[in-house]
Amino acid sequence: MTDKIEVFTWMRGLIKEVAPEKKVMTVYYKPVPQDDASPPVLPNSTSSCLRFSRFRLVTFLVVAALAIVFVTLSCLNGGWDTRGSLCLTPTDPVLLYNQITTHSPLARQVLPHCIIIGVRKAGTRAVLQYLQLHPDVAVAGYEVHFFDDNVNYSQGLNFYQRQMPYSLKHQLTIEKTPAYFHTLKVPERIAKMNSSIKLIVVVREPVQRLISSYVQLAAKRDHFPTFEEKVIDSDTDEVNENFKPVKRSLYYIFMNRWLKHFRLDQIHVVDGDLLIRKPFQEMFRVETFLGLEHKISKDTFTFNRTKGFFCLKLDDELGKRTKCLSKSKGRRHPEVDPNVLRQLRDYYRSANDLFFQQVHRRFRWS
């Protein structure tokens, strides 16, 4: 036992030599006179401004959660605006021209409520562009070709839905693929997706639509045959039905397929010729068909004498400007032999009458 005490004493002395004991300064606090109403200042207390108590933290979190809930409920009919204001409403001008993006936590992709199914070269792009003016409409920016393309169709409706624009709850989603109208399997496929969907078909005077289709094809090729050479069979001098654009102006053939799967009141027929001359009048009818408020103003349209058709007057975040259809639209038509024009009109006359009977409407086609 004595040996252990001696060893302990020796180690204690060694530690003192290596690390000498530091002197500790003792601070004596002198009481400071306090007012009776003031609480006493305790030594060694932490400043209250540097502390964040659990109570304060819980209070902050509760208030923040309530604020988020309140703002979300207030914006249920709109979306977040990253440009300044707190949230968007259906009448907010920032929603015009289909500028809803993934920035909005309330925006989502849904299957279309309406499809513009055709007809090619009749004015489908114009209808879609005019519908973009409406704040309650979201349109797909390109032709999806889901129902007429077997590869796309095989990928299922989830794939199709991902091709749709982001939209808000109050908006109608619309896509346009003119090839749908004349493709055999499309009516049945769309009906399987939604048998109550609304459809828009745009038609023009058959000969004028045929010429527009020819002009588009000729613009893509060098040394393309003349219009007369394409539409008239040189061996028989009859209308060349093997030229696809000729058959696509026989509207009654294709409309018959659609009426097997959809009621006539689900299909709105737009007069493409009147759409060129009086776009406001035709778009008013489209808004009515879709159950939309009439928000596309007559003053929005302005006639462009150079192009020969109406353009749009826009006033948005990009400033005041005029927007026309692309250069591929409104191409100049060639002069056609009057005898060929007469032959084509005779060829389409009976087909037009059948179409008028189908849609319960007559168009002013000579």
Please outline the helices and strands.
Elements: H1 2-18, H2 54-74, E1 108-109, E2 114-118, H3 124-131, E3 137-139, H4 150-153, H5 156-162, E4 166-167, E5 172-176, H6 186-193, E6 198-203, H7 206-219, H8 227-231, H9 244-248, H10 251-258, E7 267-271, H11 272-277, H12 279-290, E8 301-304, E9 309-316, E10 319-323, H13 338-359
Parallel strand pairs: 2-5, 2-6, 3-5, 6-7
Antiparallel strand pairs: 1-4, 8-9, 9-10
Textual characterization of the structure:
With 366 residues, the chain is α/β, with parallel strands linked by helices. 37% of the residues lie in helices and 12% in strands. It contains 13 helices and ten strands. It has helices spanning 2-18, 54-74, 124-131, 150-153, 156-162, 186-193, 206-219, 227-231, 244-248, 251-258, 272-277, 279-290, 338-359; strands spanning 108-109, 114-118, 137-139, 166-167, 172-176, 198-203, 267-271, 301-304, 309-316, 319-323. Strands 3-5-2-6-7 form a five-stranded parallel β-sheet. A hairpin with a 2-residue loop joins strand 9 (309-316) and strand 10 (319-323). Helix 10 (251-258) packs parallel to helix 13. It is elongated, with a radius of gyration of 37 Å. The termini are far apart. Residues 17-30, 41-50 and 74-102 have low confidence and may be disordered.
Key words describing this protein structure:
five-stranded parallel β-sheet; alpha/beta; 366 residues; 13 helices; single chain; elongated; three-stranded antiparallel β-sheet
Short description:
Helix content is 37%, strand content 12%. The chain has 366 residues and is an alpha/beta fold. The chain starts with a helix and ends in a 7-residue tail after the last helix.
